[in-house]
Specification:
Layout: E1 6-11, H1 15-26, E2 31-35, H2 60-73, E3 77-80, E4 83-89, E5 92-97, E6 100-109, E7 113-115, E8 131-132, H3 135-138, E9 146-150, H4 154-163, E10 169-173, H5 183-190, E11 195-198, E12 201-208, E13 212-219, E14 225-229, E15 232-235, E16 239-241, E17 245-246, E18 271-273, H6 285-315
Parallel strand pairs: 1-2, 1-6, 2-3, 4-17, 6-18, 8-15, 9-10, 9-15, 10-11
Antiparallel strand pairs: 4-5, 5-6, 7-16, 12-13, 13-14
Helix pairs in contact: 1-2, 1-6, 4-5
Length: about 325
């Protein structure tokens, strides 16, 4: 019996993975996408996307569903499973999951990122009890409440604005005196009467027993410390790459993001990376989509070259 080997295995079902799946399936490559949760990745937890070219005011969940349907129309196979380990034997990659082993000529890693922790007392114990990293997931539970948003980038400003749909008051707490987020996000937040800004300030402890009740805060310039009551805390202080056990030693940067060239090739032949998990300047849906398309085309060309080299060996 001929061994079941895929042309392409895609690990991760965000916009990069779904785009790679679309392009690979459209090129008639035998392709499977492995995803441990819902497809869409972090995009699925975004309330409103207003900067995707040609589409305005669409939810991340809806955009993810459209991408999945499009890829499936061209024959993409999607398997819901958790990847445990990646290895390579000769020219074949082995991906071990909780649903068995998958083998392929190429692998495209599109595993995305996860929220960075604040790493303060109380955060771990109160996670899911008032501590959250996703406004669209948990905002509903804070109707008529007072919540804190910690961070100063696009996500903190955008999600802070989103939370005002539910909360009576949203305090955006930032460790610097200026926000890093884009001008449009800053202006929208400043114009929202439900939002208050606490600048030059860090949270040193999340207080609560069964649920969050307060934050211990410290002004970095004056040294003043105080405790302020909150019903919930949403943390947006950056991201870290989503990785798993890999027996292949690919190159990565100091934060663990995978290094690639402009063809999305890693330091390992046949292994590609696309989207937020790779080392790059900008992490947006648009850049993830471009990465996914490039990685798929590069994988196709690698497979063609592999086939050519194997044929030469047979002739020789």
């Amino acid at each position: 019996m001929k061994e079941n080997i895929y042309d392409v295995i895609i690990i991760g079902g965000g916009p990069a993975g779904l785009t790679a799946g679309l392009y690979a399936s459209r090129a008639m490559l035998k392709t499977v996408l492995l995803e441990k949760g819902l497809t869409g990745g972090q995009m699925a937890s975004t309330g409103v996307i207003d900067n995707y070219p040609g589409i305005r005011n669409i939810s991340g969940m809806e955009l993810g569903q459209k991408m999945e349907e499009h890829a499936k129309d061209f024959g993409l196979e999607i398997v819901l499973c958790e990847v445990k380990c990646l290895d390579k034997e000769g020219d074949i990659f082995k991906v071990n999951t909780d649903k068995g082993e998958f083998r392929s000529k190429t692998v495209i890693m599109t595993t995305g990122v996860r929220p960075r922790s604040l790493n303060v007392p109380g955060e771990k114990d109160l996670k899911g009890k008032g501590v959250s990293y996703c406004a669209i997931c948990d905002g509903f539970f804070f109707r008529n409440k007072k919540v804190a948003v910690i961070g100063g980038g696009d996500s903190a400003l955008e999600e802070g604005d989103y939370l005002t749909k539910f909360a009576d008051k949203v305090c955006i707490i930032h460790r610097r005196d200026e926000f890093r987020g884009g001008q449009n996000y800053r202006e929208r937040a400043r114009k929202n009467p439900k939002i208050e800004f606490i600048m030059d300030t860090i949270a040193t402890e999340i207080i609560g027993d069964e649920f969050v009740t307060a934050l211990k805060l410290k002004n970095k310039k004056t040294g003043k410390e105080w405790v302020e009551s909150f019903d919930g805390v949403f943390i947006y202080v950056g991201t870290l790459p989503n990785l798993f056990v890999c027996k292949i030693d690919y190159d990565s940067d100091k934060m663990g993001y995978i290094k690639t060239d402009d063809k999305m090739s890693t330091s390992i032949k046949g292994l590609f990376a696309a989207g937020d998990v790779r080392s790059k300047l900008l992490r947006q849906i648009t850049t993830a989509v471009g990465d996914g398309a490039t990685a798929s085309v590069s994988a196709e060309k690698y497979i063609e070259e592999l086939k050519y080299q194997n044929n030469l060996k047979k002739v020789g």
